[in-house]
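Morning run. Coffee first, then this:
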Amino acid sequence: MSDPLIGITMYGRSEKNEFSLPAEYVDAVRRAGGIPVLLPPGEESAERWMETVHGFVLAGGGDIDPDLYGGTRHKTVYMVDAERDRTELTLTRRLLRSTVPLLGICRGCQLINVALGGTLVEHIPEVYGEKLRHRVPPREPVPHTVSIDADSRLARILGHSEVTASSWHHQALREVASPLRVVARAPDGVVEAVEMPQHRWLLAVQWHPELTAASDLVQQRLFAALIEASR
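And here it is:
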């Protein structure tokens, strides 16, 4: 098979009516041998992407509407986008019933959990405290260690049971949906990665591997494994 097409979900419409996506996602997929296909919100038949795309990345971004998981509208919730939520939930639910490889990153990890009936922590400091920062003001990434179950697919891919991750989030998984298995946590207990054993290839991480993948081979291995599974 030729280089696989990898669909990457995009941020919602800006005030200037523009869609966007950080270039690091595209770069990481290209380095791994995939061909990026950018997927903007608003597609009425998102499932049709699966007819041509061989693997998917659910990218990070703003918060999911709390109404979709029975949460509260905490004052820190931001960039809620009904169009993006609707498009990505439709796509995710279809992917969960398929064998198409799927990598969720940050918001993407949370989206998979919500699509399966799980819930989210609306603001990490109010549940886990601030001894460990998962992002720094105003909204900037910060590194911290992540412990990974040694017998997980994630550990086999990364080649380590502990890694340094680039963290950039204020929400996290609260009630983890039953089809998912928690395979990594931060030192404060925050869920950092899940897998779905029943799925052929589904991984979701709470951190942002694309931010450091250019210089960190361990993080780049996530994208390499996605592309290999998508061939």
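The radius of gyration is 16 Å. Good start to the day.
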